[in-house]
């Protein structure tokens, strides 16, 4: 259990990509991490693109990033909603300033773009937002997982095993 005592925020909103939320959450729990689902409202049921539900444990305003070791942003259409909340942008910016692992997959790059943290960073995403990522100042690389310091990015569900192995490795190495 190499991630015992690690706490991770997993952001959630309606229309998240089901696998891109649940695979990372379960993988981190397998490694011993505590993962909290955090949405606009606490104890709200959010539904993924394919109908899988997720119940938020906390509202954005309930969490303090200083209490967490990392943050995950799922893909799907949820990132387009998540990036509109100032609390989400502030969380991502604070995690970035503290050099804590930030995981993003697929369309989740939209949240990092809105947080304005991609200048001169190497990342990947779904090819559908490649131009958005590059216009935000990032170097886009077409690989299953790309690590640039504390930023861990991935393209889509088939890349989840490589993405989560890498994310777990980075989190385990961070401030051991």
UniProtKB/TrEMBL annotation:
PROSITE patterns: PEPTIDASE_C56_PFPI
Single Gene Ontology BP annotation: proteolysis
GO molecular function: peptidase activity
Annotated ranges, domain DJ-1/PfpI: 6-167
UniProt entry keywords in alphabetical sequence: Hydrolase, Protease
SUPFAM superfamilies, per the entry: Class I glutamine amidotransferase-like
Matches recorded under NCBIfam families: PfpI (TIGR01382)
Family, per entry: Belongs to the peptidase C56 family.
Protein name: Protease I
Lineage: Bacteria, Bacillati, Bacillota, Bacilli, Bacillales
